[in-house]
Structure prediction request, 295 residues.
Amino acid sequence: MHTGWYQVAYERDLQPGRNALTVAGRHLLVVYDAEHGTAEAYDGTCPHRGYLLGVGGTLRGDRIVCPFHGQVIGLGSGSGCALAVARHPTLLAGGLLFVRTGDADAGFAQRIAALDANHYIVPGFCRRIAAPAELVIENAFDGAHFQPVHGIGNAPAMETAQAAGGPYVGTARFALPPSAWHGDAPVAAPFRASAFSPTLVVTELGGPHPYIMLTATVPIDARLCEVRLSVMVPADEDGREPDAGKLRYLLRQAEAGVDKDALIWENLADPGAIVHALPFDGPVLGFRDFCAGFR
Prediction:
């Protein structure tokens, strides 16, 4: 498990009150207030005997009663209880719930707030894939795979950069074929991928009809993860909602893209190996260096 942000759920999956979630084998208690649209996250195991508090605890304000021995467990450090569980920062934006472990932010809180303010965020799908969580995010910086796997019209050269304490960013230009989203003519569109943690990347595709995808992974074990993918489109100046049919098209295309990638990811003899590094592997190796700062 690394430090930094994880997307742990869609808001639609939360029940009012306590929720039991797991991130890389670490149990969390998420307390969801449906009326006010807020969520708080805490370590999810009782500090006495390790009971999973999200499964059967009774909430009492800033405390929870463990059903095993009736011990009152404080939620966070300010409850005044002898036994307490640590609180973790959370973000709930556009129906997506994020939890941060440790102090690493890489500018994500500011970025998702800006996107939530001027984009329609459409919560997408969740898939389990037999691949390491970081490999899925790394894929956004593998410029050489977009032509053979996804059929774009060029082999884009990707440039990367990272400011101190900020995201790892890759930029390129894509030659896109005609589509129901962009229209009947090919499009040359700028591409930008920003990783805010080893398991969270925002990819932006420009052109006449720009859109954004947020891909987040949660590790289950070394070679299994959950992938959540959502789409965002700029808000209309007149406040009109985007066409629902086109949004469904974007999500279908995104899922089809994940299917193509998963066929590759799940058939790598050693997912972490680059046996003979080639010049275009530089952005991937840079992403791996970025991930090392979160361990």
About this structure: The two ends are 7 Å apart (CA to CA). The chain has two domains: 4-101, 109-292. The mean pLDDT is 94.
